[in-house]
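Can anyone check this?
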Amino acid sequence: MSGVSTTPAEGSNGEAKTVVPSPLPPSAASAPTSASLPASPHLRLLAGLGLMLALFLAYGIYTLGQMRQLRQYQRRELERSRRDTLQLLRIQEDAYELTLAVSDMVSSQPRVPLPVWRANIARLRRDMAHALHREAAYAPAARGADERAQLLRALAQFWNISHQAFHLSSQGFAHQAADLVKRELAPQGSYIHNLIARWMDRNARTEARTEAAMQAIYGGVSRKLLWLEAILLALAAAIAVWVVRAHRASFAQVRRLAQALDERSHALADANHQLLTVQEATLQRIARDLHDELGQLLTAQGLVLARAQKQLPAPASPSAADLQQARKLGQEAQQKIRGLAQLLRPPALDDFGLLKTLSSLADEFQRRTGIETRVEGSLPFVPDDAAIHLYRIVQEALTNVARHAQATQVVIVLHGQGRGYGVQIRDNGRGLDPHAGSGPGLGLAGMRERAQILGGTFALQSQPTGLCVAVEVPG
């Protein structure tokens, strides 16, 4: 039955199994627009989530920028202050060492030659000049040119006094040189030491201010983080409340629609059941009328024609031939009426039961189509209202085989399962058409509805050697 549109599914034995879906009731499709689903709240929900993500992103960018700025500021200021302090300590130590060197030089004459002291003093002077040059690169902006000029003047005076003491000592005036060292060089060294100490103290205060600025930045970031967290929590709570309300409204609407659809489906199923019941009663009445009334009339007509034919004086006359032709036409009409009555409502179904009726249907189908058809198995007692539905299902399945399957053999398998029973119509045709549409045909829809009226299931099983229509009715 390849002409029937179905949706295949995979069976347990590797065969494609298709269950015909229930068509949407027309009454449900034409439901009023007021029962339609409310507008989707996804756009507003996505807008709220997008706003939250934007806030998170903005805060993340802001935090990274602040942290990077803080690290750069901390690294720059602390490293500059540390290097400046190291150079100031170096200058301070050189000045102190130079003071001691000049004092020792004066007191050790003439035991230690002057060139020895000259080389040491020159080394200290070079080291101090190098330290001054390095310190100028690390000096803070708050230290102006006047303070540096003051240090340079103090150092120049210190070198001048050191040179005078060295010169006096080299001329043999050791006492004058010692007095000069004690009276001017030592105070000048102390002055340089105190000046550098003030600078170092200022560096310490700068470091303290840097630390305070860092703490202020950290505090500002922390406060803004708390504010952002509070805003995001409030926004999330508002969105959550709104989503819950929207979902509750949507679910309530869906439940109402599902209930309405279920009621309409039940009403349509009841209407279909009643329609099929009326249809079968109508067909039964028409078949009975055709068989009992019209059939009897044709039988009576045949008897009248036969009696008239016997009363003719010349059996070979034209009138006798016409009467014979009329009798033949009446017999053919009677056969067609009997076949039509059989199609509408087989009398054997009421007289001999479903099994005999299906066997007769199989024989008639084989005679009419040439397709080998047989019935296998047996059925328990089936009530008349259920038997007619099973008969119609088998009848429609055989009609589809003749139209679409291109089969050479059909087997009707009957079986009883406990208190239930079932029927399968198997053919060796070409099976389902994989390129057909997904909607079931009217014949399949009618078979499915009849199976549902019986409280059973209807399925199509596409096998490698054909198609199987299966109906199972529970007990």
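Reply from J.R.: I decoded it. DSSP finds ten helices and seven strands in the chain.
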